[in-house]
Amino acid sequence: MKPKINQEKSNNVLVIALGIVIVFLLMAAAAGWALYLKEKLHSKLNQKLSPPPGATEQCLPAPPTAVPTSPSAGQDNQNQNITEQPGPYPQEGYFPPTASAKNMGYLKKVYAKNGKNFIDVDYIQLLDGAEAEKAMREDGQCPKTGECVVYDDYYIRNQNPMVRSLEVAPEAEIRMLTLESETTGRVDQIQVISFEKLKNIFNPGSTTQQRYQFTPFIIEFVNNKIVKITEQYIP
Predict the structure, then answer these.
(1) Are strands 225-231 and 125-128 parallel, antiparallel or unpaired?
(2) Mean pLDDT, the chain, as a whole number?
(3) Per residue in 6-37, pLDDT tens?
(4) Between residues 213 and 188, which one has the greater pLDDT?
(5) DSSP classification of residue 153
(6) pLDDT tens for residues 97-110?
(7) Domain regions of the chain by residue span
(8) Which of its termini does the chain have fewer beta carbons within 10 Å around, N or C?
(9) How many angstroms separate the CA atoms of 222 and 112, rounded?
């Protein structure tokens, strides 16, 4: 009877071992199948998100560029020659600015009319370095050959004498640098003034009007109205 019992025990061990092997095989197959389904799903998602061959990428329009606020003589005066559209303007010679821009010019007249504020501006270019020397040679301010001296390393160029009448927004900021320089000796103190003060400074025939008639001012405007006027210091 003992040999039969031992044989039964051996058969039971074999069955158990075989069952364990089958369980491991089933688990491995299930893991492999899950990995296959995951990779297949990821591939389908990539195909849906990727543009078809030959398609061009569509981008959202860029947000509008803000008007820069810091004055820079070398780069703010490249729009001197502007083509304006005709229209019913408050006075003869009125030319509206572009929708959003920044230029430099001489203030020719500061006044109010029909409840609105205006300034008449003659646009200029303030150049330095190699650009100043090149412009001076082109304008006949230097000898055809030889050294061209750019005094104080800047050159003011005025190719277009057209005077533009521009509306000033009621909330416009007006910044002066040298208004009190004769008494303080400093030219680095920013003084914010009102439009009425600016109008008094440019009162025709006044000593201040003569003082500032050839002083460049940086003009910034948005939506056809000037929002900022800044005196540009020149040595």
Answers:
(1) unpaired
(2) 76
(3) 566 666 767 777 778 787 777 777 766 666 65
(4) 213
(5) G
(6) 555 678 999 999 99
(7) 1-46, 100-124+164-231
(8) N
(9) 19
Q: Is 89:96 a contact under the CB 8 Å cutoff?
A: yes
Residue 124's nearest CA partner among 94, 96, 95, 159 is 159
Residues 166 and 97: beta-carbon distance below 8 Å: yes
Give the position of tokens 């003084």: 191
pLDDT value of position 20: 82
Distance, in Å, from the CA atom of 136 to the CA atom of 122, rounded to the nearest integer, reads: 19
Amino acid residing at 104: M
Count of CB atoms within 10 A of residue 2's CB? 6
- What is the model's pLDDT at position 21? 75
DSSP 50: S
**pTM of the entire structure?**
0.58
With a CB cutoff of 8 Å and minimum separation 6, the contacts of 160 are 80, 81, 123
233 half-sphere exposure, CB direction, 13 A CA radius = 13
7 three-state secondary structure: helix
Structure tokens at 69: 């606020």
- Cα dihedral 51, 53, 54, 56 in deg (nearest 10): 10
CA 141 – CA 69 distance, rounded (Å): 32
Nearest-angstrom CA–CA distance, 101 and 88: 22
Cα 106 from Cα 211, distance rounded (Å): 12
Buried b vs exposed e over 182-203: b needs ≥16 C-beta within 10 Å? eeeeeeeeeeebebeebeebbe
- Note the pLDDT tens digit of each residue in 165-189: 999 999 999 999 999 888 888 888 8
